[in-house]
Amino acid sequence: MQLGPSELILNPDGSIYHLNLLPEDIAHTIITVGDPDRVYDVSKYFDSIEIKKGKREFITHTGLLNGKKITVISTGIGTDNIDIVLNELDALVNIDFHTRTIKTKKICLDIVRIGTSGAIQADIPIDSYIMSEYAMGFDGLLHFYDSGHIQVPKLPEAFVKHTDWNRSKSTPYVVKYDDSLGAQLMSNRIRLGLTATNIGFYGPQGRKLRLATQDVDLNSKLESFEYNGIKITNLEMETSGIYGLAKLHGHKAVSMNCILANRNTGEFSKNPSKSVDGLIKYTLDKLTS
Fold first, then answer.
1. Does the reported pTM lie above 0.90?
2. Which of 168, 208, 224, 285 is paired with 188 by a 20 to 30 Å CA distance?
3. Range(s) of the domain holding residue 194
């Protein structure tokens, strides 16, 4: 079946609509970062850069490191942007833009998020690294897709009961990382965790400036939740969308989190740039060694 012009939207040069990329512009190993400036922080370690393209907040560099082709792309903040980036990355490798048809032979991408995050448990040190073994989404993105078969059962129900979750909010969902890619990136420097993906930075993460929040005890409920030994470790804004859409498309995904804040103790990193740079170098080494 041919995809219509309003479904698969291409630019005049044949590139995918938002990312402004052609199929030959990307590698099969993708690093996603939220901040467009962080693309340069990653690609500066490449031995060479072949592609530099951008549109809106979506900046892409593709290059070589230790003989391996890698793409780094900025997503901006939030799972709404992840919906654009993950779907268009998949289209670049699994849809024929000339015939506008889905390819029979599918390509599997390795997708690694390098992002910043806030810890919810007091014992998680500032500047440490967490790999999201599970992602719990408060965003609702996955509910728009036929996704029940990829979701982790029972854990969300236990969370809803524990927190007395307001039913007017989106129902939480949980997706697991890719085990094989996670094993490649793992070491004794990394802590596994359950990452909560929020739909905002202030109220949804319990921050109060001038507006009152609906549940003033939400963060303490997040901290105290436990299910079969699994606790929520950290908060951020993209991982659940990456895990959900990657798994639905047949790609592998892992989220690497640099802990810059501890919401329990009130601490914040004294040198966030150095900490994030350390995670970038660690991840690149694991991907290319």
1. yes
2. 224
3. 23-288
